[in-house]
UniProtKB/TrEMBL annotation:
It comes from the Eukaryota. This is Reverse transcriptase domain-containing protein. Coiled coil: none annotated. Gene3D superfamilies: 3.30.70.270, HIV Type 1 Reverse Transcriptase, subunit A, domain 1. InterPro entries: DNA/RNA_pol_sf, Retrovirus_Pol_polyprotein, Rev_trsase/Diguanyl_cyclase.
Length: 203
């Protein structure tokens, strides 16, 4: 390619772009143009948010959104024994914030107290960039190894960029509490119980 020899992948696609970044990086002349030339990007968010709020008010309502199309069903490997772990101590400095977040999850019907469970995982608390607290279940204690693995092949970056060819409008969607919006089957809820200083709480 222009006197430069290199090895890489070439993809046959219905789009104009036939070579990926690895080929472009191998050629100094093409890399120069890639670094110097950019397409014009216009940000046209002014006024659109208010229009969307009026058109789709249910999307912007306060509270937790929920995926109602499908339920998540966690399938176990054969001959798996339930793993019950004790709760971990919460640092006194973080106790108030942890209690507040657990209460918030209970109020949103994400978790609810139970008196008994065969499965239980301790929690891990992570401070988010906005200063709020995220409570995560540490399923590495047993449940992760017990679940059947369903591996989905992720698309190559080159394929993703090729699919954007010809696009004129792009958007970014940030879902609040995205993982909490997925509904679990009743049987799966029994497997994802968290053990906290306030007791057992299934998700």
């Amino acid at each position: 390619m222009k006197g430069v020899e290199a090895e890489g992948y070439a993809y046959v696609t219905p789009y104009n772009s036939l070579i990926g970044l690895e080929w472009i990086r191998a050629n100094e002349e093409m890399r120069y143009h890639l670094e110097m030339m950019t397409a014009e990007v216009k940000v046209t968010s002014a006024g659109i948010e208010e229009e969307l709020r009026k058109t789709y008010p249910e999307v912007f309502e306060e509270g937790l959104g929920r995926c109602i199309k499908e339920e998540v069903d966690l399938q176990l490997n054969q001959n798996v024994r339930p793993v019950f772990c004790n709760s971990r101590p919460v640092p006194h400095a973080a106790l108030e914030a942890v209690n507040a977040e657990l209460d918030r999850l209970v109020q949103m019907d994400v978790i609810a107290p139970v008196s008994h469970s065969e499965w239980a995982a301790p929690i891990v608390c992570v401070k988010k960039q906005n200063g709020k607290l995220r409570i995560c279940a540490d399923f590495s204690t047993g449940l992760n190894r017990a679940l059947q693995s369903f591996d989905y092949p992720l698309p190559m970056p080159e394929d993703i960029f090729a699919s954007l060819n010809g696009g004129t409008i792009f958007s970014q969607i940030d879902l609040s509490d995205a993982y909490l919006q997925l509904e679990l089957s009743e049987e799966s809820k029994r497997k994802v119980v968290i053990n906290t200083h306030k007791g057992l709480l299934p998700q």
